[in-house]
Amino acid sequence: MSVRASFSAVKTAEDQRDLAGLAEGIWQEYWPALIGSEQTDYMVEHFQSLAAIRRDMAEHGYEYWFVCAPDGRRVGYTGGREEPETGRFFISKIYLLKDERGHGFARAAISFYEELCRSRGLSAMYLTVNKHNELGIRAYIGTGFATVDAVETPIGGGFVMDDYIMEKPVS
């Protein structure tokens, strides 16, 4: 399924606040069933909160975009950062509202990143995906990603991210 999504850059303090609110809602709906409520709360606070978004943008070169439906509604968000040292783009986040999943927005986000990588002369994009996130894994395989590694990353608070690393070359 193909959808004509658009991507609106997160630029202002108001955008950042809106993004943090959207992120918390999506995370609290989707992740507790996969990783539990405690780890979900921890990850929202440390990786999806307003403070985390501002930190990542200011200190780590992250860029964020709202994923928008053809009618302009914000249906999710995405973000990541360029890695000039590897010639790749790290896609840190592609998250969609529950009712918007399965309508082609994730595929549109991957196409968005392909164009971004081409315009910046990057050779590939990669991401991490929870090993139990079957919906995400299927979506990434369906858009040309391949699993290149598996990692367990301690994130603090006694929690671990148990992920596959998936990569897609960009021609």
Automatic annotation (TrEMBL):
Organism: Enorma phocaeensis
InterPro entries in the record: Acyl_CoA_acyltransferase, GNAT_dom
Organism lineage string: Bacteria, Bacillati, Actinomycetota, Coriobacteriia, Coriobacteriales
SUPFAM superfamilies per record: Acyl-CoA N-acyltransferases (Nat) (SSF55729)
Gene3D superfamilies assigned to the protein according to its UniProt record, in alphabetical order: 3.40.630.30
Domain of life: Bacteria
Residue ranges crossing the lipid bilayer per the database entry: none
Domain N-acetyltransferase: from-to ranges: 8-171
Protein name in UniProt: GNAT family N-acetyltransferase
